[in-house]
């Protein structure tokens, strides 16, 4: 049996920004659920009884389709924070968004304790320009409380005609009262890769993993190598800070950009035969130049796959603060005219066999970013382990989060400037360059 579905390694639930690619995969050998027990059928009868009682006796005539949709979504969201139902419109929106262009505010969001939480604002979008920060809790939209809305309902309210304004009421960490921020909607064109030359170092920022990410990275490296002679180029900084993730295949392709051989990542589902291993092909586009990868508490999932692969293979030094800790993979399974479900189907493991679920990637060099005075009271960004219902770490050790602030002015960016100093030999650290002769731990 062939079904269409897509694999995501994304840190946010269905939000104002999301990305998904469709693949054809044979699911016939991935295992079939055991036959339902009599108790299961009794529970299904219970669902039918409650459904009919609501239809017959609720104070107003209910919408049958909404009842079923809410029941399905409730079933999925009870599993973990990243499983959910998308109706036909939501699924269509998601398919459009994977192309890297959509209408909205430009934020990655999830739902936490009944309110919308900003995972990260996307660079150069209305939300980022208006001052929305990672970790902000959106409690009202144009004065209407978010409490009681589903994530999808909140997302739909945040979308609207280009140039139309919306007022977001947000609570900031340790804030004493809500803040109202007005944002004007726009067409969000996601350029997932941006680059520049820092005199003798190539700087590449990857904001998320869309269908264009690998091509954008390849073009960025080629341009940097064209602009800076090889004997002058000290190396590359790959900035994955506040990158919430995206497409699994793009995370693999980005990792492969810097690796000649070896496993990049493995995904392991419920059944042993579902294990998939992804390996690098020969060819390092950076031609062996030193690489430093920047991560922080907003670097999630696909970002963590890249950081974990390059760290385990000693191809790059990871610098910054502990990453988000989302070590699961979601499958988008279309349901014909009824939309699709987003279902957590596997955990992923770094080349050394490590699951980072609810723990994150620990940087080789920790550099905490100093906060400006107005944000001194801001708590650390909460990671995967802080999400209600999250998949537990397999070894029981969990970490709740770390700093995720990135200064808008590069001169104040302690993490970036430390990376530049290391590449130029102005600072020394035992973790840079990594000891490439050691085998990947197993």
From TrEMBL:
- Chain positions covered by the region annotation Disordered: 378-415
The cross-references to InterPro entries, in alphabetical order and at most eight, read: ClpP/crotonase-like_dom_sf, CtpA/B_N, PDZ, PDZ_sf, Peptidase_S41A, Tail-specific_protease
Keyword Transferase annotated: no
Give residue ranges for domain PDZ: 91-159
SMART domains found in the cross-reference section: PDZ (SM00228), TSPc (SM00245)
One GO term under biological process is: signal transduction
Q: Which UniProt keywords apply?
A: Hydrolase, Protease, Serine protease
| Record flagged with keyword Hydrolase | yes
State its Enzyme Commission number(s): 3.4.21.102
PROSITE patterns hit by this protein:
PDZ (PS50106)
Which terms does the record give in the GO molecular function aspect? serine-type endopeptidase activity
Q: Which domain of life is it from?
A: Bacteria
Q: Name one GO cellular component term.
A: outer membrane-bounded periplasmic space
Q: Please give the coiled-coil regions recorded for this protein.
A: none
One protein family per Pfam: CtpB_N-like
Top class in the EC scheme:
hydrolase
- What family does the Swiss-Prot or TrEMBL record give for this protein? Belongs to the peptidase S41A family.
Protein name, UniProt field: Carboxy-terminal processing protease CtpB
Originating species: Methylobrevis pamukkalensis
Q: Which gene encodes it?
A: ctpB
